[in-house]
Amino acid sequence: MTDNNNLNGAGAGAEGRDRVIGTPTADGDTLVSGTEESAASSQQRHIGPYPAVETHPRTEEQQRKGERSAALWFLVAFVSGVGFLVSYFLFPPAADGAPSIAHPATAQLANMAMGGTLALSLFAIGAGMTVWARQVMPHYEVSTPYDELPSSPKEKSSFSDFFMRGAHESGFTKRPLMRRTLIAAMLPLGLAPVVLLRDTGPLPGDRLKHTMWESGMRMVVEGTDREIRATDLDRVGGMISALPKAPHEGEHGHGLTLNEQAKAVILLIKMDEFGPDMTEQQRSWTADGIVAYSKICTHVGCPAALYERTTHRILCPCHQSTFDAANGAKVVFGPAHRPLPQLPLRVDDEGYLVAAGDFSSAVGPTFWDAEKGD
Amino acid sequence: MSDTPAPKSLRAVGNFIDDRFHLAKTGEKNLRKVFPNHWSFMLGEIALYSFIILLLTGVFLTLWFKPSMTEIVYDGSYERLNGVLMSEAYASTLHITFDVRGGLLMRQIHHWAALIFVASMTIHMLRVFFTGAFRKPREINWTIGAIILLLSFVEGLFGYSLPDDLPSGMGVRILQGVILSIPVIGTYVMMFLFGGEFPGEDIIPRLYMLHILLIPGILLALIVAHFMILWHQKHTQYPGTGRTEKKVVGTPMYPAFAVKAGGFFFFTFAVIVGLSAFVQINPIHLFGPFTPTSITSGLQPDWYMGFMEGALRIFPNWFDFNIAGYAVPVAVLVPGLGSLGLLAVALIAWPWIEQWITRDREHHNVADRPRNAPTRTALGVAASVVYGLLWLAGSNDIISETFSINLYLTTWIFRVGVIVGPVVAFIVTKRICLGLQRRDRETLEHGYESGTIEQLPSGEFIEVHKTSSPETVHVLRSKRPVPRIDVEATDEEGVESPEARSVMGRLRNRLAHWYTKDNISFEGVEPHSGHHLHHGHATAGAEQEPANTH
Ligand code: HEM
Ligand code: FES
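The joint structure predicted for all components is written out below.
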């Protein structure tokens, strides 16, 4: 209930005026009669678009004050609008020399100058318009009837009669052969858009189950070209994030595509000892106490990048699935279900860590046939 | 009628249009459209205005944004990342930020407007829910609104994914993981959407098309439909003098509402721009480009994705199972798709569910006061509590760090919370509603408590009750009688209806009974009818059991 105290001026002038469509009759539950204050204003001739009972004008003095403050706001808007244009040119882009918005601090400053002036200008227009509506214009409590929504039974039956006659005469109801063949004609066309989408991507086949890792492939520290020796693990505190050494030299980085990285990235972890849940086979995939797990969480695929050495737990920061590195990366907490796939390792003749084959199971988020063999 | 005839030029324009469209009558009717005066009717407006701002700023961003995942070595204005491999999408977003004047501002306005767009819609929807404004004849508009809200989640997620910075790519990764979890077809859907394996080179161009063309187009169409229906059916209104099921009272479109709404548009715009000027949002240059192998902790999605993020975090893996070796990762499916699906179904179907339970087929133009629909209100609060807890659970790592609580303990607190919380919320809310109804009834009978204590000649102290204003009486009396529906309903002749014997019929009667059983009856209460009713009546309504209940 806003402006409850404005319920005055009622009663006068309602009767005897032409009733405009969409406005209430003067009977019944219009407005309660108000207080004495309205006497003066209702005696003036009412010229507004809505009946006097529904219009609660502001006093002349209020309106004058309103006009002045609205105008003041609009002036503020004008000035800060100009300020916006000025601040646009105040901070040039890099091509035009320093200090430019290419520098983050200057970009921030330019942002504040432009945003601040624009916000002020918009606010002032809003304020001016609000003052206009609340202090210059009358307060209205206009009432209009809700439309009667359901049509009258007569209209309804006339419509349905008309419609059915039309349907009948057109033959749509009477001639089933034509109707049915038309529906049949639509079916293949309805499928067409689905079929047309076929070439948006390849069929999955078993490509989600294999990665680029092959037996004998060396590995590099993620983000560098440095090949990893078994002894490196002792130096770096027990955990390295690694990628295959690119079989093909790319023009940049480690030469692997993002697709390849997304599947091949591993965590190399040096363990003092393995736990009881580590099978013989899983132990045989380790080398010099180093175990390699896929870094991609089996929940929905974030890199499970956090390793806590004391508890030998791998934590995925996305939804906190926690894997036990000493026990085949089995899930010890959180929403993931499958252990992180393990990459078989060995040490080659030169002392470098190499893969001894592809991962033990499908890498990444669990999918329908992730646990099915090939 | 008016003292000032329309100026000649205006008349000429008016005639020009009317000659071609015959608009004088419709035009006048529409300019006379009435908007009830209440702040809560502005929530939907905020949503509309932020949508307009999104369209404007979004078009600006498209002038420079390159939806391409081609990898390039950055060599541009932002020196810290020179020489770094990144996608063209990310590089072009850096360009917008550091080379285009006003680009950073427009990006921040676009992002803030997105947050406020979804937030205002959500609160608007809660208003409509708790006041029963979705009831007949407005069910279809409620449904359209629900679809707009759900589509906006998707639209926002896709927009968030475009700049290809680290959090943005992580969002896409999670999307991919969730799609993969769909039984049987998941891998196919994922391959077709991504054009191959993750991340591929297609996903950003495709999300871009969806983000700037398809979804905004659908949203625009739905929003237009939403407003046309609103216009035709008119607003609901809160109870008050003069406001009835047949008549709506408020500010007319012309001249007052147009100016008020215009002013409000500028206010909304000003707040969004003000935030964008002074509160940094999504500083992609600090996050760095996406790579599938790195991550930072404490990643947060935009707020409207928070409930799904939280659901993914706390849903345990106990229900994952295999059928004949095929994996069904329930812990991804339920929180990742089920939560959104449940929300969608519950929202879209609610008006019809409630109608089916209560058998209420009447038109409603006067809004319910939430207390007068205690079961609905309690259900709404319970659902909001689940949503809120899931949303908080989406930041459990931050909560854990801030309050030094064990991370896993926070998970457990939320797991228990989402089960216990809504039950408690339901019971408490319902009690509060019924308590408020009782107080209303009391106020209606005795007037309001004046705070003045008087001593009667007998020595007894009483509080003086003053007569409530006619407005208050009107509002209080707006409570409609609630027809109680009994489990073993019989028709007029005392014969059990065949419907009541079917399983669905029985369920329906049970639900209806549960939905309507608690209610303080106002029937027969006369305003200010006196003191003598004072004792023993507070719970009278609840005890007025119909004769044939067991
Ligand atoms: C209707 C609701 C919309 C929502 C909720 C939305 C949301 C978002 C969000 C959250 C972002 C990330 C912004 C950032 O960089 O921080 C974004 C980016 C973007 N949006 Fe929208 N948007 C909407 C409509 C549109 C429209 C209609 C267009 C264009 C016609 C558009 C064009 C873009 C472009 C080009 C970007 C990438 C540029 C960038 O991130 O800086 N958006 N959107
Ligand atoms: S992606 Fe690792 S816990 Fe969800």
